[in-house]
Amino acid sequence: MSIFNDTKVAFADKSDAQLRKAYWMFKMIEQPALTSLGTSVLNFTVHNNFPLVKSIVKTTLFEQFCGGETREESMKAVKQLFKRGVGSIFDYSIEGKEDEETFDSVCQEIKDIIKFSVGNPAIPFIVFKPTAFGRIDLYEAVGNGSELTSSQKDEWARVVKRFDEVCKLCHEHSKKVMVDAEETWMQDAADHLCEEMMEKYNQEKPIVWNTIQMYRTGRLEYMQQNLQRAKEKNYFIGYKIVRGAYMEKERARAAEKGYSDPIQPTKDASDKNYNAGIDFVMQNLDKVSAFFGTHNEVSSELVMDKMKAAGLPNNHPNIYFGQLYGMSDNITFYLSDKGYNAAKYLPYGPVKDVVPYLTRRARENTSVAGQTGRELGLIKKELDRRNK
Questions:
Q1: pLDDT tens digits for the chain (388 residues)?
Q2: What sign for the dihedral angle of Cα 214, 216, 218, 223?
Q3: Exposure pattern of 267-283 as b/e (b: 16+ CB <10 Å)?
Q4: Are 331 and 340 in contact (CB under 8 A)?
Q5: Strand-pair partners of 306
Q6: Nearest to residue 322, comparing CAs of 348, 299, 288, 306?
Q7: Which of 96, 168, 235, 359 has CA 20 to 30 A from 13's CA?
Q8: Which residues contact 319 (CB under 8 A, 6 or more apart)?
């Protein structure tokens, strides 16, 4: 029996009405055909400014998975989470735009988040996606070592500048910043940028944290190589360790272009690789800090067991656990209740601009085996408990 099944703790902040609405929504997401059709229609209608659809989205998907349309609006969720000992990680979830004006605007928003969160322990991390600061095709070209045109060189210099401005500001204010991982074909360039930023700003402690997707092949070897580099260059490493979220897209592209599938062959292989990542961190805590981003109960419990075996306190400063807002509350609130460092990714942004994030999240929920069923089972268990 899982230790993470105390629904009274998990849903202490939710009313019966909120739970029933969440149950209905996860029930809809559970149907792959409905999710596929619904997300296409949703993107079309919201982007064409159908007010009724926007209103429905805001009170359903958006309310479940997002903090609000602005930082200020999201502070209600931040304060509520922190009352329970859970931190919040503002995730400005604008996706799918590729113009310089948007890149500059998002970079400014991230810098504003940093200033907004200074001195607030309820917001322990800043986060951004590499493609929020530059085009995915440009990352791919840089990572491949392609010869860049002069305009591409200028464009890449602006990407590096945005990275550096954010990491420098975090260093000045002693705020930790996580760089999300994305598709494999752009990741080499993002990794190299993260390594440069770590070398520059992690001399005293881990300010810059890269994200490692353990459903990929070769990631354990990458972490080992980076550890060697960190020892030689004398800096600390921060990693967010996740399984990954682009499996179907990655496999389809590898088949189409005729290169080796970069994803682990089976779910079991991914799980073993994730657990090997846990081992790597636990064996190198003097140099490596980790944020274990996972909705997997077995992995979460494994980290806890290894901490206990090593005699580490639950709130060890080098170990964090994280889940997405609106999901796996049974894990998050159990961890915080026991004094572990727990945090929620808290997306926010205008409803219209966040819809691509929301529809991607709905698709991921549908494709992750058992995830939606688990959420439904926990909600039903809590409603039954309350109505006895």
A1: 689 999 999 999 999 999 999 998 888 777 655 455 445 555 555 566 666 667 777 887 888 889 999 999 999 999 999 999 999 999 997 766 789 999 999 999 999 999 999 999 999 999 999 999 999 999 999 999 999 999 999 999 999 999 999 999 999 999 999 999 999 999 999 999 999 999 999 999 999 999 999 999 999 999 999 999 999 999 999 999 999 888 888 999 999 999 999 999 999 999 999 999 999 999 999 999 999 999 999 999 999 999 999 999 999 999 999 999 999 999 999 999 999 999 999 999 988 788 777 776 666 654 455 678 899 999 999 999 999 8
A2: negative
A3: eeebbebbbebbebbbe
A4: no
A5: none
A6: 299
A7: 359
A8: 281, 285, 289, 290, 292, 303, 307, 312, 340, 341
Q: How many CB atoms sit inside 10 A of residue 153's CB?
A: 11
pTM: 0.93
Nearest to 344 by CA among 79, 34, 44: 79
The amino acid at residue 33 is A
Structure token digits, residue 181:
């991982």
**Cβ-based neighbours of 237, under 8 Å, separated by 6 or more:** 198, 202, 206, 210, 226, 227, 230, 287, 288, 289
Phi, psi at residue 288, to the nearest 5°?
-115, 130
Q: Which amino acid is at 362?
A: A
Q: Provide CB contacts within 8 A for 325, sequence distance 6+.
A: 65, 66, 67, 77, 88, 344, 345, 346, 347
Q: Which residue, 362, 322, 281, 35, is CA-closest to 180?
A: 322
Contact 186, 164 (CB under 8 A): no
